[in-house]
Specification:
Length: 203
């Protein structure tokens, strides 16, 4: 692995999903399902956000590329979203690009010069120019962290691998709704689409 051709990609670590006082958290509290998400919310605070922060610090201190993918639509009415995000169910998501909910959590906020890719799909590689930009930057290896492991992270990892990038998925920098879903998806991806490593192993 050549650090000069390696980039960090953080997926969907947005206030909509990772802030206890915004977005989904308010809906969970209102409909009485907050306790069902206790594992996920606790993992974000104790493991996932700190691990991504360590990776961010490592990459930034060495002048390595840092990129972000996020769910964010362009039009105020959300009509530019893909059908999957207009449908009913958990994937029915409406987050405008200028909303506070679209922002990355404060601990992982992008700095000047760090690229942010808006998507209305699971994978950051679908519906954005990420793959072209990575090639233009001379990137060959992508280190991926974010949420959720079995949806947007998995879609992004497989999309990168299918387009000939070497991928590291950082286990403790990801989270899913349950530990079981998290572990199962990593088992599926490992050694096929990516190398699953810890933050310590990656660094």
């Amino acid at each position: 692995i050549d650090p000069q051709s390696t980039a960090l990609l953080i997926v969907d670590m947005q206030k909509e999903f990772a802030d206890d006082n915004l977005g989904e958290a308010l809906a969970f509290k209102a409909d009485g399902t907050w306790d069902d998400w206790r594992y996920f919310r606790d993992r974000l605070k104790t493991t996932t956000i700190p691990a991504n922060r360590r990776l961010l610090d490592y990459f930034r201190q060495r002048g390595m590329r840092v990129l972000f993918g996020r769910i964010a639509c362009l039009s105020p009415d959300g009509e530019d979203r893909e059908p999957v995000q207009k449908s009913d169910g958990w994937n029915g998501i409406f987050i405008h690009q200028d909303s506070v909910e679209a922002e990355m959590v404060d601990e992982l906020a992008p700095q000047n010069g760090e690229l942010v890719f808006n998507k209305t799909t699971d994978s950051v590689t679908t519906g954005t120019n990420l793959l072209r930009v990575l090639r233009n930057l001379g990137i060959r290896t992508v280190v991926v962290g974010g949420i959720v492991t079995d949806q947007c992270v998995a879609g992004t990892v497989s999309g990168l691998a299918d387009d000939s990038f070497q991928v590291i998925c950082v286990e403790d920098a990801c989270a899913a709704a349950t530990q079981e879903l998290h572990d199962a998806e990593l088992k599926i991806m490992n050694l096929i689409y990516c190398q699953v490593l810890s933050t310590d192993q990656t660094i």
